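Morning F.,

Quick status update on the modeling queue. The single chain you submitted on Monday has been processed. Sequence for confirmation:
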Amino acid sequence: MKKAFTMLFLVLATQLQAQKRTFFSQSELGFHVGQTYYLGDLNPYQQFKNAALAGGLIYRYNFNNRLTLRSTYLYGQIAAADSSSPYPLLVNRNLSFKSTLHEVATGLEFHFVPFQFGSSRYPATAYLLAQIGVFHMNPQTYYNGAWQDLQPLVTEGQGTSANAQKPYSLYQLCVPLGMGLKVSLGKMATFNLDLSIRKTFTDYLDDVGADFYTDPQILEDEVSDLSAALSNQSLDGNRFGKRGTSSTKDWYVYAGATFTFRLGKGGGCFY
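Structure tokens below.
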């Protein structure tokens, strides 16, 4: 009986050790660096406008040579200003913002062709990626010599007698969708190029969502003079013009390069 338990223990220990080796050999950890930019009310169309430095971390688990679990952390910055718009109406609106972004997301990569570390036959592949994530934002604008946090100022009158809508949350959901290229650097590392756009469910990356301006007197009486001043900064002082577009949501985009490293040794092929 004692020998049987000993044999059973050795078999289980061997299997656990093998599973541990498999887990680490199929796992990758790395970092990415690139740029983020924004598409929304203050920049409807121009790609890579005001792109800013971004970076973060990535973890991958390769289920096989075609399908990979992907989890990421991204730090980025986005910004836009009406003053640089080619459209006179937007220049007159005269709004501007910047925001830092902290995003965590997880999802899948699908390789177009089998990928194997260190393989001369399958050394590279293009892939599609789809994730779901959550991010933190904090839109600010520069006014009177200082950066002002916009969300607490409810510049569109959220929570006042003019607007029953609650102030927007600084934490939001996103759906990163994109494509990339993955290249083997020997049996232990990869180099990647990524381009992914984030569908968000908010129109307030830029603090601009409502179609029209809130009555400045209500903002002065129920919030603050600063709220009223930042709600409408139009050059002609017209508060009856168009402030934003409530029918669309904001987006942001990441483009960059990634290096990953396998956490354990093993064969180059995943099954």
